[in-house]
Amino acid sequence: MCYKRIRFHFLSISVLIFSLTLAGCSKDEILDQYNSIVQIAGNAALTSDFSLKGNRTYGEDCYTGTYTADYKDFSKIEYLFGGTSIKRENGKDISVSCDLEITEGTAQVFWVSGSDDPIILLEATGSYSETITLPEGGNYIGVIGNNFTGHLEMNIE
């Protein structure tokens, strides 16, 4: 089933690129359109606002914004910010700052890029602040909890 879905998406993208080529679009215009399609698909991986435990407000795009949440016995993963942009309009650097308070259980704020293992940014009560350079492709920042009760505040610019 997954193979059919991938094949369908590949076919759809191929038809779009072929159509744009026939319409006289330049290589840059075709790449911009392809990047837009990839970004829309990548946004679908983010946890929906309805499913979030807290409140998220996006900034300039889905890679930036603020998030504040109070968790009680939380044992899930939330993908808060990110996407799959090949060429992000606002550049590759983002400034991440967050405060995590764990009163029970465990929690990790993470960054995952492509098929690489997630990088743990914070996993104890405390603060994190760093500028991250995003490689091309999928990049997501989120939180994972295991019976986590506590508070998270995040700001990404």
From TrEMBL:
PROSITE patterns in alphabetical order: PROKAR_LIPOPROTEIN
This protein's UniProt keywords: Signal
Top-level taxon in the UniProt lineage: Bacteria
Annotated signal peptide: 1-23
Keyword Signal appears in the UniProt entry: yes
Full protein name: Lipoprotein
Gene source species: Schaedlerella arabinosiphila
